[in-house]
Amino acid sequence: MLNILQDVDEAVAPIYDGATVMIGGFGKAGQPVELIEALLRQGAKDLTVVNNNAGNGEEGLAALIGAGRVSKIICSFPRQSDSHVFDAKFRAGEIELELVPQGNLAERIRAAGAGIGGFFTPTAYGTPLAEGKETRMIDGRGYVFETPIHADFALVKALKADRTGNLIYRKTARNFGPIMAAAAKNAIVQVREIVETGELDPEIIVTPGIYVNSLVQVSREKAPAAA
């Protein structure tokens, strides 16, 4: 059943210590900053976070990592010019990293939402990322077996929702949101606007409401800091 909540703090209240949390966004595009900041206030710790990268600057996911609340991150792009918060934690041995090639990351999340038990991919075959994993030769090419990534919660940012939880996104802010909503047991979504059921054109709905558990409207979103 969909819960339409009054504020982001109420939305993240169910997240518990040790949970696996998927966080949408590609860098700053589509990052649910308000939900992340609410999670920072909420206090859950020892989190495993699944995200495309490991935070930018000192806000959003980087702030959560900096506060020592993330014990492990699963991502494809941990280091960049402004990833100093993650860098410091990793060098100090205070956070575990599982590095996953970006396509594999997306497909492992999608597989969880689709109920697929795993898949073979040529990506990472013959590299350290394939160590300890099943490999197979298929039509003369090496493949690695990858398993789905499931999560207890997903924090997702969409543009607009109706009152049954159907979602549409803004351009590239769509990125990981749809597959994360499907892969998590509990999808928590912030949107700029909630409209009445029937107002969204069915042809443009990306995430069906069946995947959304909690919905909160954030009309005045925090502008991302300059890179």
How would you classify the helix and strand content by structural class? Answer: alpha/beta
How much β-strand is present in the residues?
Answer: 25-35%
Domain unit count: 1
- Spatial extent as radius of gyration: 18 Å
Mean pLDDT, as a whole number?
93
Low-confidence stretches: none
Largest sheet: 9 strands, mixed
Overall body shape = globular
Q: Total number of β-strand segments?
A: 12
Assigned CATH class: Alpha Beta
For the termini, the CA-CA separation is: 39 Å
CATH homologous group name:
Glutaconate Coenzyme A-transferase
What share of residues is helical?
10-25%
From the 3D structure, determine the CATH topology. Glutaconate Coenzyme A-transferase
Question: Any guess at the CATH architecture?
Answer: 3-Layer(aba) Sandwich
Tally of alpha and pi helices: 6
Protein name: 3-oxoacid CoA-transferase subunit A
Keywords: Transferase
InterPro entries: 3-oxoacid_CoA-transf_A, CoA_trans_fam_I, CoA_transf_BS, NagB/RpiA_transferase-like
Organism: Arthrobacter gallicola
In short:
This is 3-oxoacid CoA-transferase subunit A. Belongs to the 3-oxoacid CoA-transferase subunit A family. The chain has helices at 8-12, 33-42, 61-66, 84-91, 102-114, 177-183; strands at 3-5, 20-23, 47-50, 70-75, 96-99, 119-121, 135-138, 141-146, 151-162, 167-168, 184-195, 214-217.
Could you explain the architecture of this structure?
InterPro entries: 3-oxoacid_CoA-transf_A, CoA_trans_fam_I, CoA_transf_BS, NagB/RpiA_transferase-like. Keywords: Transferase. This is 3-oxoacid CoA-transferase subunit A. Pfam families: CoA_trans. The structure is a single chain. This protein has 227 residues and is α/β, with parallel strands linked by helices. It has one domain (3-116, 148-217): Glutaconate Coenzyme A-transferase. It contains 6 helices and 12 strands. Strands 1, 2, 3, 4, 5, 9, 10, 11 and 12 form a 9-stranded mixed β-sheet that branches. Helix 5 packs across helix 6 (177-183). It is globular. The model has no long low-confidence stretch (mean pLDDT 93).
